[in-house]
Write a structure and sequence with these properties.
- By secondary structure, the protein is an alpha+beta fold.
- It folds into three domains: 114 residues, no CATH class; 118 residues, 2-Layer Sandwich (Beta-Lactamase); 142 residues, 2-Layer Sandwich (Heat Shock Protein 90).
- It has ten helices and twelve strands.
- The strands form three sheets. A five-stranded antiparallel β-sheet has the order 2-1-5-4-3, sandwiched between helices.
- A hairpin with a 2-residue loop joins β1 and β2.
- The longest helix is centred in the middle third of the chain and has 68 residues.
- It is rod-shaped.
- The chain starts with a helix and ends with a strand.
Length: 486
């Protein structure tokens, strides 16, 4: 038995008991009291039963009170006969009072239930802005707002009319999309200007709420439903303002993120320009020095000296071209537009060949290469792999003390070729060894150029390998890996 049935039964039982008790008390006095006064007294249990048990108890109380009044207080007593016609007046008044009381109670209860329901909905609508704060995009705010309003108000549907290319177009539709298109066509004129307010489209009531702030215009929130109380419509006007505030907050947040990103990009661009300028100035300085010497002293130079200057200039030109080519290849790799050309490579021979192009003599250094016997061939892109080895060997030579040995050790494990390049130079204390390979860490406090290391890391990762660095008591070791099978 439900709680409603229990209260109805309780009210009915109470009405019968009260009418019986009141009748017993009033029977000895019925000759002294006018019938209208007795009818008024018997209304008390009627009202009490309705207050407790509702409409069902009120109907039972009305019937019981009418019967008791007729049986005990309308002559002839003890019968349901009415006697003279004038006796119908108090009976009719009693019956009318009972029916009016039942109807009033029913209306009151319906209004109370509706008010409680609307209060519940208003409470949830009040909490809506708090949920919108968690959305990180304007699109998310629109979608969450339309979905939650449809769910809370049990609407047929809702959508956003948002400005696109100076026209309002439907978006974030929740409900029947075909109906949304019909509403949008009726709601927005050919000039793209929306009519705000309330309309009827194919028998469905449509309402719109403008979403805007002092600084921006977001469009309209459009809802449609057959029945929506005016109090909730008024509440939605307030909610629309709160949604506008949430949209503006999110838009400002996105704008701030874009500004932060642009500022960061500007810092990176300046750092990259400084790095590229530094790495290009070195070969350009060598080219200028060789060209100046040839121009000023060309006739007095020995043939061997002249050839050496020309070779120096050509070598630096090749290095500058290679640097630009490496940067372009990195860009293509990151864009997914570069496809590696794999071929079988003898790793020992490649390292020895690359080492001939590295200036070991200028610092009186030499290369010491150690590799396992019968080393298998590695599948790699020869051009990219040569640049990896060149950058790491050049980095090692430039940062080793004069006369030191650069050690290259090749190892094998089950999955990778492991190449260790060790020099006796040391990183500056506190250097972030992870950021050392970042593009915009170049020329940092580490004293090592991040551009060549960043290129090397990009090319190694394109082979699905890894480039790392570790500092030991004897110096610095760069290690890169290459898969044994591609």
């Amino acid at each position: 038995m439900t709680a409603h049935n229990r209260t109805a039964l309780l009210g009915s039982g109470l009405s019968i008991l009260l009418i019986g008790a009141f009748s017993a008390l009033l029977v000895p006095l019925r000759t002294h009291l006018p019938p209208a006064s007795i009818a008024l007294i018997l209304v008390v249990p009627l009202v009490a039963s309705i207050a407790i048990g509702g409409i069902s108890a009120g109907v039972v109380a009305t019937i019981a009170g009418f019967g008791a009044y007729d049986l005990f207080f309308i002559p002839p007593y003890g019968t349901l006969a009415v006697g003279v016609a004038s006796n119908w007046i108090p009976l009719g008044v009693y019956l009318l009072v009972g029916l009016v009381t039942v109807l009033i109670d029913r209306r009151f209860r319906l209004q109370r239930e509706r008010a409680l329901y609307q209060a519940h909905i208003l409470e949830q609508l009040t909490d809506l802005p708090a949920t919108l704060i968690s959305e990180n995009s304007v699109e998310g705010v629109w979608q969450s707002a339309t979905e939650q309003i449809v769910r809370l108000l049990e609407l047929e549907g809702a959508m956003a009319l948002r400005p696109t290319e100076h026209l309002l177009r439907p978006a974030n539709i929740v409900g029947d999309e075909q109906m949304a298109s019909v509403i949008a066509a009726a709601f927005v004129g050919s000039n793209g200007v929306a009519r705000s307010g309330e309309f009827t489209v194919q028998g469905v009531r449509v309402r719109s709420f403008s979403l805007s702030t002092l600084s921006d215009y977001f469009g309209f929130l459009v809802i449609w439903s057959d029945d929506l109380p005016d109090s909730l419509v008024q509440a939605l006007t307030v909610v629309a303002s709160q949604i506008s505030a949430a949209l503006e907050r999110t838009q400002l947040h996105e704008t701030r993120l874009r500004l932060d990103t642009l500022q960061q990009i500007d810092v990176w661009r300046a750092s990259l320009l400084r790095t590229v300028s530094h790495d290009l100035l070195t070969p350009l300085a060598g080219i200028k020095t060789a060209a100046t010497a040839l121009n000023e002293f060309g006739d007095s130079l020995e043939p061997g000296e002249r050839e050496q200057l020309i070779d120096t200039a050509l070598g630096q030109i090749d290095r500058s071209i290679q640097l630009v080519s490496d940067l372009l290849n990195v860009t293509r790799i990151e864009a997914g537009a570069f496809h590696l050309q794999y071929q079988a490579v003898n790793l020992v021979e490649l390292i020895q060949d690359v080492a001939t192009g590295v200036d070991f003599l200028s610092v009186e250094s030499r290369l010491e290469l150690c590799a396992p016997p019968e080393l298998p061939l590695v599948q790699a892109d020869v051009g990219l792999l040569r640049e990896v080895v060149w950058n790491l060997l050049d980095n090692a030579v430039r940062h080793s003390p004069i006369g030191q040995v650069v050690q290259v050790k090749i190892e094998l494990d089950r999955e990778f070729f492991v190449v260790n390049i060790h020099d006796t130079g040391r990183l500056v204390e506190g250097t972030d060894q992870v950021r050392l390979f970042e593009w915009f860490h170049a020329m940092g406090k580490s004293g090592r150029s991040g551009l060549g290391l960043a290129i090397a890391r990009s090319f190694v990762e394109a082979h699905r390998g890894e480039l790392t660095v570790r500092m030991t008591d004897s110096g610095t070791t760069f290690t890169f890996t290459l898969p044994r099978q591609q």
